[in-house]
User: Fold this.
Amino acid sequence: GIQVEQSPPDLILQEGANSTLRCNFSDSVNNLQWFHQNPWGQLINLFYIPSGTKQNGRLSATTVATERYSLLYISSSQTTDSGVYFCAGNTGGFKTIFGAGTRLFVKA
Amino acid sequence: GAVVSQHPSWVICKSGTSVKIECRSLDFQATTMFWYRQFPKQSLMLMATSNEGSKATYEQGVEKDKFLINHASLTLSTLTVTSAHPEDSSFYICSARDTAGGPQQYFGPGTRLTVT
Assistant:
């Protein structure tokens, strides 16, 4: 099956800083999504981004499918951005594979 | 739109008893739902794929007789943990695909199970 690697595993930011999270796939993937898991465990859909670039407020994401990676950009980080960020995708079926996540802590 | 609910949000049960967790798609129909398990500070692990009106497909290593899944309608899937033991304590999360929409998955808020 596909392998999903996320980096960095942990990240500490000062409020207001920018950051880039990366997701690499071992094989071609479909239906790539980025999620934010808040401290209560709720997974929040951030982006459905099989290819190209999307932006939503302070967040944006870019997927380069041919090179098997995706990036999540967080600008002007806020304490409420803290949590775990997961990328996930599948190879055509419905079985979605998650990366190990990037644990982000934003300091006030 | 695309809201998924889970009930209960947390449950404590005694070893040997069974616990049922419900997953509902509130504003869309979901032919396919998924059940995940998450241990502290780890990623989500897919347990099984639930298909409306048919048997669930379990991932390798997941005991079918221990984790019973029923998907009786297009908006409801249930996971029953039978004869629970302390090692079954975990965070269980369901997700659903909108039958009429794209391939995105929408996740429920999760159920925290503690077996004493």
The CA atoms of residues 46 and 104 of chain B lie 16 Å apart. The longest strand of chain B covers residues 44-51. Chain B touches chain A through 23 residues (CB under 8 Å).
